[in-house]
Amino acid sequence: MTAAAQSASRALDVRPDPHPGDAAAIEIRGLRKIYGATDGADAKRALNDIDLAVPTGAIFGLLGPNGAGKSTLINILAGLVVKTAGSVRIWGFDQDVNPRMSRASIGVVPQELNVDPFLSPAEALEIQAGLYGVPKSERRTLELLEALGLADKAKANARSLSGGMKRRLLVAKAMVHSPPVLVLDEPTAGVDIELRRQLWSFVRELNAGGATIILTTHYLEEAQEMCDRIAIIHRGEVRAEAPTDQLLARIDRKTLVIETDGPIEDLEPIRRGLPAEVSLERRAGARLALSYPKRCAALAPILAVLSETGVAVRDMTTEEPDLEDVFLELTGDDGPDAAP
Predict the structure, then answer these.
(1) Which of 20, 49, 237, 340 is an S-S bond match for 92, by CB 3.0 to 4.6 Å?
(2) Number of other CB atoms surrounding residue 31 within 10 Å
(3) 8 A C-beta contact, residue 218 and residue 324
(4) Angle in degrees, CA 77, 83, 85, rounded to 5
(5) pLDDT in tens, 44-56
(6) pLDDT tens by residue, 233-255
């Protein structure tokens, strides 16, 4: 490994101390946020007695429709919004008892590209480090820029940076004080496929270096691939929180997709012959979708009915439930891009 590569690798390390031991990286108990007078008619309850524990070293997904309370929760963790009730501990530090160390233990990468256009990347990182009280001798400006592929832009005007470079600069700013917990709020919103791939590779590298990652995203397939655990928030409440594979197992159905030789006008003869637990729907392109509980050995009866009703099968595939199915089950009609 070259000296530059070793320097970049060190920039991804998080500080080992203080450490919460067996405790979670973030512990939230009874968290409540009400905007407006708590007893007034116009009071808006953004968070309603949230309980969450983010394991140390996890990549933790925080998902929910727009207006579900994700931004309020992140802003409370960052110390930007004052909670109404409840407790928050970050890296073992109670936010009320030791707010300085609590804030120092977390870095937040916002969704908005709020980069000062008059500062170079190096200047932006130096100022950010100064705000966190990082001594000049301990600052890692060049190492962070190297790690994020911005070394050649260290002295460039921020206005000359592409959107992807600005996104990476925000990650670097969140890391200047070596926080053990990093929050990524919609990090791939509006970026192209290649930059998205690079960002996820970098997130995995950060996590391998010891960082606990909290991720919000509207791209549910990304959350399913990246996250160890996922919490789904809806209307200010946690609807589900579990390891990703356990969440996917909530839906006890699978789907057999049949491609036929041509469109089938009347599906009723097929429906009448199918077992009661099997549902049938038409799909585009002369395809049929037959869904049934995973626990049922329904494939043989389905194929027998298709044969008896004269359906010529050209091809078949099976589909397993994904995170979008779980999300829709828990949030109803409020999809990931629903309005507040």
Answers:
(1) 20
(2) 24
(3) no
(4) 120
(5) 889 999 999 999 9
(6) 999 999 999 999 999 888 888 89
